[in-house]
Amino acid sequence: MSEMIDPKALKYAFKRWKHRVGAGKAISEAAENDDLDFEGKKAHIGKALRADALKLPRALAEQFEDFAQSIEDAYDVDEVDHVLEEMFDFADEARIWMGTI
Q1: If DSSP codes are grouped into helix, strand and coil, which group holds residue 77?
Q2: Separation CA 12–CA 81 (nearest Å)
Q3: Where are the beta strands (DSSP E) in the chain?
Q4: Which of 26, 46, 63, 72 is 20 to 30 A (C-alpha) from 40?
């Protein structure tokens, strides 16, 4: 039998995040959309990151703009993966929830 998650504990866990954005969903959408080529996938992610930047304080927004530019300028999937890893690490440190749904 699966263990039940305490709703109070879950509510507390989500309160720890200072900011919430939806770029994680855009990343999933781009990865799963076979109609987008590599450039289209990068553009989709970059657009989402720039939209999320508008929801963040200036210092965090500037970093998201930099991540968007780095992804759009990436030459291959490995470079995109590297930027995404840096971005998710940054988001964790800055307490930004990168929504995936």
Answers
A1: helix
A2: 31
A3: 19-21, 96-98
A4: 63
Radius of gyration in angstroms for the set of CA atoms belonging to the chain, rounded to a whole number:
15
Confidence at 1, pLDDT banded by 50, 70, 90: very low
Paired tokens of 79? 């470079």
Model pTM score: 0.79
Domain map of the chain by residue range? 20-98
What distance in Å separates the CA atoms of residue 16 and residue 51, rounded to the nearest whole number? 23
Please give the pLDDT value at position 83: 96
Question: In this structure, what DSSP letter does residue 1 have?
Answer: -
Structure-token match 């939209």, residue found = 51
- pLDDT for position 20: 81
